[in-house]
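// run 5 | inverse folding | seed 20
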C-alpha cells in the first residue's frame, strides 16, 4: 500500500511540475506567470464575473495572492473590476483582450490534455478524473480533520517502528 501511495504522489507531483512548466512557458509571452492562467480560465468560465473572494475559493489561493494577481491582470489590460463600493467585493470580468488571451490558453490546455491522455479511452478518462476528485476530496477532508489516531503511541526519538494503521483504512 505504501509503495502505491508513493507512486501516486510522485505521479501527481510530476504532473503538477510539468503543467506548471507548460503554463509558465505559455504565459511568458504575455509577461505573466504560469499561475495567472488558472485565474484567467476561472474568470473566463464565469462570464458574469466573480469576486476576488470567489476567485480565491475557486483557485485555492489566499487573499494576498489574489490581490497581487488581480493587480497584475488589470495592469496588463486583461481584467477589469465592475463598480462596487468595496474593491474586494467588486465583480472581476475579463476585457476583450483578456477573453482573447484566455481563449488561446484554453485551446492550448485542451491540446495538452489530449496529448497527456493518449492511450486512454473516454471511459478511462472519466474514471481517472472521478477517482482523482474522490482522492482529492478525501485528502482535503483529512487535512482539515487530521489523521485518525492509532492505539499505539508515536515513535519516540531514536525509535524505528511504524505504528499500525487503523482497521478502517483499506488498500
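// decoded
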Amino acid at each position: 500500500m505504501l509503495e502505491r501511495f508513493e507512486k501516486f504522489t510522485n505521479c501527481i507531483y510530476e504532473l503538477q511540475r510539468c503543467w506548471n512548466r507548460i503554463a509558465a512557458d505559455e504565459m511568458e509571452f504575455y509577461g505573466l506567470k504560469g499561475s495567472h492562467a488558472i485565474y484567467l480560465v476561472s474568470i473566463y468560465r464565469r462570464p458574469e464575473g466573480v469576486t476576488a473572494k470567489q476567485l480565491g475559493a475557486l483557485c485555492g489561493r489566499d487573499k494576498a495572492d489574489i490581490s497581487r494577481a488581480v493587480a497584475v491582470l488589470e495592469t496588463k489590460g486583461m481584467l477589469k473590476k465592475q463598480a462596487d463600493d468595496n474593491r474586494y467585493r467588486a465583480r472581476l470580468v475579463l476585457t476583450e483582450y483578456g477573453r482573447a488571451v484566455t481563449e488561446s490558453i484554453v485551446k492550448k490546455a485542451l491540446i495538452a490534455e489530449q496529448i497527456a491522455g493518449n492511450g486512454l479511452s473516454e471511459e478511462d478518462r472519466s474514471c481517472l478524473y472521478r477517482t482523482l476528485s474522490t482522492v482529492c476530496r478525501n485528502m482535503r477532508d483529512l487535512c482539515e480533520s487530521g489523521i485518525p489516531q492509532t492505539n499505539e503511541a508515536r515513535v519516540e526519538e531514536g525509535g524505528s517502528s511504524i505504528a499500525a494503521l487503523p482497521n478502517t483504512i483499506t488498500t
